[in-house]
Amino acid sequence: MPLLTPQQTVRFVILGLPIGLILTGTLAMFIYFKVDEVHEEQSSRVPVRRLLNDADLRAQVRTLAAGIGSRHVGVPETLSSAQKYIQSTLGPANLGFQVSRHEFEADGQTYYNLVIDLPGAPGPRAGEIVLVTANYDSTAGSPGANANATGTAALMSLAQSFAGSASARTLRFAALVNESPPYAGTPRSGSVAYAASLRTRQDNVVAVVSLEGLGCYLDAPGSQKSPAGPATPFPDTGNFLALIANPAGAPWLGPLGAEFTTATRLPLEPEDTTSLPALMGSATARTFDQAGFPVLLLTDTGALRDPHFHQPGDTPDRIDYLRFLEAVRGIEGMLRSLLNPVPVRS
Fold it and tell me: How large is the average pLDDT for residues 291-302?
């Protein structure tokens, strides 16, 4: 093949350049619209119901506590990673939920509570909201497996188990941030910001179900402590889940306790805070209590039992996953009852 002269080379480049640009532009447009089609398909995916299972809970706890690790305001990178993990996992491209971000400011930084709504079926109770909360941050220096990756994992799995359900009431899940020191219980916490927004919007929240450490169970006598006060509400063996209600939530203790024990063999200890206010010790539960909402706190009682609570030893390998799963199954039964109240016969 004869070589091109310099003049022919220049002519070839001048003539060929527009053709190349046209082909490149056409390819780019194809890729752009193809990606947009995939995005639209993912965005319109309908959440599919998934039964509660041990594998999901393990994977979620390990991702938060081992894969990401300690996540708090002092390490904004890991806190952001936790937020993105939850949002991405639950979102349209994966599990199919529409995840909204409730944004608030604290000390010049922007933080996000993550919210999913499963609307109630058309009817008189669809405007009533059962709110399930769990915080996705941890204490500084702690991987936060039990406090509170277990609560976050339970929230994520419960969202899947209720996907596609036609309940009478609306079910809302809120993964909250800044619920650990130094912001816990302050105006800079996610719960305070979110409770204020609920009041501003006048959302009709009929119950707040707070998930606070669900994975520590001990069978040795003396493994359970009780808070200081006028009564000793707990057995001395830490093998149970506690259901603690503020005065507004206390009427549900009996019915929900019955639903829990029907769904699982895990022991439940229902308590109200009328005689022992210290039981509402969780920062998140206390925030919603002080904001005037009926509150139901579900917890393994944290520091009253767990020797690694808020410590470096709070790692995924210390979680009792079998009883953790039983706890979440019991909570699922309670939520179904809250979402579909039985009419009182006159």
Answer: 96
pLDDT at residue 14 is higher than 60: no
Q: In whole angstroms, what separates CA 188 from the centre of its chain?
A: 19
Q: At what angle do helices 321-339 and 253-263 cross, to 10 degrees?
A: 130
pLDDT digits (tens, 9 = 90+) for 156-172: 999 999 999 989 999 99
* Mean pLDDT for the chain overall: 87
pTM of model > 0.90: no
Banded model confidence at residue 44, pLDDT cuts 50, 70, 90: low
Contact 137, 79 (CB under 8 A): yes
In the chain, where do the E strands start and end? 100-106, 109-118, 128-135, 170-176, 204-212, 241-245, 268-272, 295-299
Distance CA 288, CA 252 (A): 17
Give residue limits of the domains in the chain: 1-44, 47-339
Please answer whether residues 80 and 30 qualify as being in contact, where contact means their C-beta atoms are separated by less than 8 angstroms: no
d(CA 160, CA 276): 35
Q: Is the peptide bond before 182 cis (omega within 30 degrees of 0)?
A: yes
pLDDT of residue 12: 44
How far apart CA 26 and CA 106 sit, in angstroms, is 46
Homologous superfamily (CATH) of 47-339 is: Zn peptidases (3.40.630.10)
Token duo for residue 131: 């709110």
